[in-house]
User: Which sequence fits this backbone?
């Protein structure tokens, strides 16, 4: 194989590749030998079909397969040996090819620019830690205890008030007729929370055991029987019990019921939990600091093909006229995104950062734990959408890169109180809201899921995919 570089224009290059006919012939003979062992043809024993017969029947298809493999292997080798990292898919233009002919083709490729990472150590980043006051922990315990009310039976003559638990059986009708799900037994409602049907609770106030109450409500929009939505329903409720809340005693037994060893251990666990809640949000601030500084780095040239792809993503959802007006804005944003992606990619490659399969599965399992009842739906989503897994891989890859940059960056550790952390996060949210209003755009910033394709591509195996332009059509060979 001979490779010469032609028409070098910035990041765009044409590579002329020459493969002599003897090499091609060798690949063809290997393929014929492989097929002869498995092909079944009438009148011939398995493995005994002459090469000439196979060639006569399958010659064009076999040549097509061999040509595709030779193009893939030689183009990948040509790019690797010349240290060219493609930005997007290279294109192949066949000049000469065929049996008993030399193979000659042109690879047109846009390569990724060279990135200088020397200044990465000059990045300044704040790393936050929240100091949780013991009063905050006690407040959280008090809230948990309040939500874990114990209800006790009271004198049947006692009436139900806000905060009490009313237990009842009911039969409901619309226009005097029963409907699906119109009966219920041992229904429990904590009055004042309005969790059943809007306005239902209030009509059970002052009720008592064995009393029958007619409750009239309009059925809500999310009611399963759509034809009844908005209609007035009458619920005939027989009160079977009224229970009053009993204050939960906060002690070691209470803590054990929550999975802790004792009350002291529960306080330690809750302090960590509260800290973790703020840590995740504050880590996003640190990440944004890093990305904002990387955005200011200089990259001499951005691949135009990547810019065009990114503009398509940014303009998605806009009407053509509006998208045309925002073209310069989209182009500027696209270049920023790609530049950040290229720099992060280079850092990831130089530091041999990879995403392992178990890390992806671990992240999916983490998401499953936050969506109880929807586990099957989420698993099917990832199984049926490879692009979603690619996007998840890209997110994990970016987070690993950011964590690695922090190790080399100039880090200032800051300890905050809970109120200081809340103020900082509130200010950042307000700043983002103003920025969003200023942009008038459906687009998210680079810290969100809808990120540049540049970073996502870097998480895939570094094999060269090519678009081939040729005149003949090829088909696969049946080996049966």
Assistant:
């Amino acid at each position: 194989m001979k490779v010469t570089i032609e028409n070098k224009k910035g990041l765009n290059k044409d590579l002329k590749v020459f493969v002599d006919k003897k090499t091609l012939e060798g690949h063809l003979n290997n393929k014929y030998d492989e097929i002869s062992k498995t092909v079944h043809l009438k009148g011939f024993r398995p493995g005994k079909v002459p090469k000439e017969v196979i060639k006569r029947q399958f010659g064009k298809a076999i040549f097509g397969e061999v040509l595709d493999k030779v193009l893939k292997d030689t183009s990948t080798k040509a790019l690797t040996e010349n240290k060219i990292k493609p930005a997007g898919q290279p294109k192949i233009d066949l000049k000469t090819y065929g049996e008993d002919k030399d193979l000659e083709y042109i690879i047109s490729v846009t390569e990724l620019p060279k990135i200088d990472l020397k200044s990465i150590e000059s990045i300044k980043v704040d790393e936050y830690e929240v100091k949780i006051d013991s009063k905050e922990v006690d407040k959280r315990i008090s809230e948990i205890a309040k939500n874990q009310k114990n209800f006790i039976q009271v004198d049947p003559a006692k009436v139900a008030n806000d905060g009490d638990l009313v237990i009842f059986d009911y039969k409901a009708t619309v226009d005097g007729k029963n409907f699906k799900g119109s009966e219920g037994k041992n229904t429990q409602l904590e009055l004042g929370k309005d969790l059943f049907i809007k306005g239902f609770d209030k009509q059970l106030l002052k009720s008592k055991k064995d009393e029958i109450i007619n409750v009239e409500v309009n059925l809500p929009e999310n009611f399963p029987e759509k034809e009844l939505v908005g209609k007035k329903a009458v619920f005939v409720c027989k009160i079977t019990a009224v229970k009053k809340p009993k204050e939960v005693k906060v002690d070691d037994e209470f803590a054990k019921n929550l999975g802790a060893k004792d009350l002291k251990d529960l306080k330690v666990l809750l302090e960590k939990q509260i800290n973790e809640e703020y840590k995740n949000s504050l880590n996003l601030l640190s990440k944004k600091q890093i990305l904002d500084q990387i955005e200011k780095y200089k990259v001499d040239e951005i691949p135009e093909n990547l810019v065009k792809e990114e503009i398509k993503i940014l303009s998605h959802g806009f009407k053509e006229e509006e998208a045309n007006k925002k073209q310069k804005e989209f182009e500027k944003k696209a270049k920023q995104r790609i530049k950040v992606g290229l720099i992060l990619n280079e850092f990831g490659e130089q530091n041999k950062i990879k995403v392992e399969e178990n890390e992806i599965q671990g992240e999916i399992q983490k998401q499953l734990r936050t969506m109880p009842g929807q586990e099957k739906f989420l698993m099917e989503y990832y199984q049926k959408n490879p692009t979603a897994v690619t996007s998840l891989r890209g997110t994990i890859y970016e987070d690993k890169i950011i964590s690695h940059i922090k190790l080399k960056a100039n880090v200032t550790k800051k300890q905050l109180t809970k109120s200081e952390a809340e103020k900082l996060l509130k200010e950042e949210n307000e700043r983002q809201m103003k920025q969003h209003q200023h942009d008038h755009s459906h687009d998210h910033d680079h810290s969100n899921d809808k990120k540049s394709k540049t970073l996502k591509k870097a998480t895939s195996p570094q094999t060269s995919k090519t678009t081939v332009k040729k005149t003949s059509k090829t088909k696969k060979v049946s080996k049966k």
Notes: The mean pLDDT is 85. Residues 28 and 63 are 7 Å apart (CA to CA). The longest strand covers residues 232-246.
